[in-house]
Amino acid sequence: xxxxxVAYYSRSGNTEKMAKMIADELSQKNIxxxxxxxxxxxxxxLPNYDGYIIGSPNYFGxxxxxxxxxxxxxxxxxxxxxxxxxxxxxxxxMIGGGGETVCLDILKAFLIHGCLCLGFTRLGHYGxxxxxxxxxRVSKEIKEMVNKYAEILNILR
Length: 157
Ligand SMILES: Cc1cc2nc3c(=O)[nH]c(=O)nc-3n(C[C@H](O)[C@H](O)[C@H](O)COP(=O)(O)O)c2cc1C
Fold this sequence. Notes:
alpha/beta; Rossmann fold; 157 residues; binds flavin mononucleotide; 4 helices
C-alpha cells in the first residue's frame, strides 16, 4: 500500500480543514495517510513515504515560517527523496492575495529535492487555493486533486 504524508501548518484552522479533507479523500483511495502539522513531523520519517502533500496559509505571498522551517530541515534528506510525488495547497485571505505563489514556493522547494511535482488543468493549476474557510468549490478541487494524485502515485514504482 502506498503511503503519503499530508503536512500542514494552520493558525486559524482553514488550512487544517483542507488538510483533513485531503487526508479523507486519500484514505478512500486505499492509500495509507499520515496527517501531521509540520511542527510534529519527525524529519527522519521522510524517506518512508511515497509522496507528500504540503499545505500552508498564505503569509505575504509565501508559506508560513513553520512550513519553511520543515522544508529547511528536509535538507538532511537531499538526494534521498528524489522521485517522491508532491502536491501543494493553501488557504489565503483574498483572491489575488498571493495564494498561487504559496503553492509555487512549496513546489519549487520539492523540485530542488528532485521530487515529481503535480500541476493541474481542472483546478487551481498549482494546487487548491481556498479563500478563507474551504467551501464547495474547494471541496470539489480537493477531490479532483486527490484523484489525479492517486492515479499518478499508483503508476509510480
Ligand atoms: C501574518 C499573516 C500574513 C498574511 N498575509 C496574507 C497575504 O499576503 N494575502 C492574503 O490574501 N492573506 C494573507 N493572510 C490571511 C491568511 O492567509 C488567511 O487568513 C488564511 O486563511 C489563514 O489560514 P489558517 O486558518 O490555516 O491559519 C495573512 C495572515 C497572516 C496571519
